Amino acid sequence: MATLLWHELSSGELADLGDRGTVAVLPIGSVEQHGPHLPLGTDTMIAESVAHAALAGPVPPAVALPTISVALSSEHTWAKGTLSLPPGQLLSLLDSIGSAVARAGLKRLVFLNGHGGNSAALRVAARELRLSHRLLTFVAHPHTPADQGGISSEGLEIHAGFRETSVMLHLRPDLVRMELAERCVPEWLDRYRLVGFGKPVSFGWTSDDFGKSGVIGDPGGANAEAGREAFSEAVTAFQSALAEIAAFDL
Ligand SMILES: [Zn+2]
Questions:
Q1: How far is the CA of 144 from the centre of ligand 1 (A)?
Q2: pLDDT single digits (tens) 59-97
Q3: How many Å apart are CA 226 and CA 231, to the nearest integer?
């Protein structure tokens, strides 16, 4: 089955989608430093690839909106190449897109978010769109970020670590420079019981608080096979989520 892409349809074709209960999926990533070994667009490539692969499989009717690549990356603006919007601009963009989705007659909108730094704003947008356009809105991740309840077995998996690097070795090996990969795991955070990533008290940070490489995790040992497995798990998980989302109601 071919993935249905919003921007490949005509306006008339799009008008039929609402009647069929079609779910709108908006992949969102980032353009931000990902250490010396990964490309800036890592999160965007992963979010879009998972969304498109999921929609090509056995899922309820769904259409992928054009991916938002530049979002909230202020924690990485110290590094050259990072592109970031002020939070208000992202909220305004999401409101414009959500309102177009509602005007097209669709009732369900899912953000598939590849960058943890976007999550808080997406939850705000999800509520605002519910309020202003009565949409049923959802926030999903290809992999739940480690600082938001996600678990990882290969050390801290916050940024450019084992899993993300492996997935990129699967998707775009031509863009990964493993010879430059550096480990940077802030083990000193273990000194704190309550404050930390995924602990009861979160904290504000920028990625250079942990080291010069911009990595927060351990890309060592990353490989394409682990990436293929992680990618296929993410696709399957999103397909299952879509089945529930299509049936969900308030
Ligand atoms: Zn990333």
A1: 12
A2: 899 999 999 999 999 999 999 999 999 999 999 999 999
A3: 8
Both tokens of 245, joined, read: 């989302």
Tokens of 99: 């309102």
Distance (angstroms) between ligand 1 centre and the Cα of 250 equals 33
pTM of structure: 0.95
Residue 219 one-letter amino acid: P
- pLDDT tens sequence across 128-144: 999 999 999 999 999 87
Q: What is the pLDDT of residue 152?
A: 58
Domains in the chain, CATH or no CATH each: 6-247 (3.40.50.10310)
| Cα of 182 from ligand 1 centre, angstroms | 15
Upper half-sphere CA count for residue 243 (Cβ side, 13 Å): 8
* Ligand 1 centroid to residue 47 C-alpha, Å: 10
Residue carrying structure tokens 């990072």:
82
C-beta neighbour count of 86 within 10 angstroms: 10
Nearest-angstrom CA–CA distance, 32 and 43: 8
